[in-house]
């Protein structure tokens, strides 16, 4: 049984501001929502593609932060990666709305 780690958006923002780039941010929402607005630097791997793309697209040595449409979708993505053997995986609590609420950098057609 794996533990679902939850990361705070403020902690992630602080890491970015301090230039600690040894992590990956994954947006598991569908591509149109990703294109509309996303955390700056996040990569798009829709939840339905996560299992098939994880082995070739992600590094096991990096901390991985995941956000989705809601915390339930994020938690499912975390469980998927943990099942595949990724250990440094955390759900970004509150996702994109929480990120925007602390004025985290975003990109996309909404910005």
UniProtKB/TrEMBL annotation:
PROSITE patterns reported in the protein's UniProt record: RHODANESE_3
InterPro entries to which the protein is assigned, alphabetical: GlpE_sulfurtransferase, Rhodanese-like_dom, Rhodanese-like_dom_sf
Residue stretches in coiled coil: none
Signal peptide: none
Residue ranges constituting the Rhodanese domain according to the UniProt record: 19-108
Protein name as catalogued: Rhodanese domain-containing protein
Organism, scientific name: Dolichospermum compactum NIES-806
């Amino acid at each position: 049984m794996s533990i679902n780690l939850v990361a705070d958006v403020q902690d992630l923002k602080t890491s970015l501001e301090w230039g600690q780039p040894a992590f990956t941010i994954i947006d598991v929402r569908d591509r149109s929502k990703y294109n509309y607005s996303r955390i700056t630097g996040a990569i798009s791997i829709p939840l339905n593609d996560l299992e098939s793309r994880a082995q070739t697209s992600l590094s096991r040595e990096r901390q991985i932060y995941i956000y989705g449409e809601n915390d339930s979708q994020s938690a499912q993505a975390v469980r998927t990666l943990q099942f595949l053997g990724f250990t440094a995986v955390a759900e970004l609590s509150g996702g994109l709305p929480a990120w925007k609420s602390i004025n985290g950098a975003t990109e996309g057609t909404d910005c």
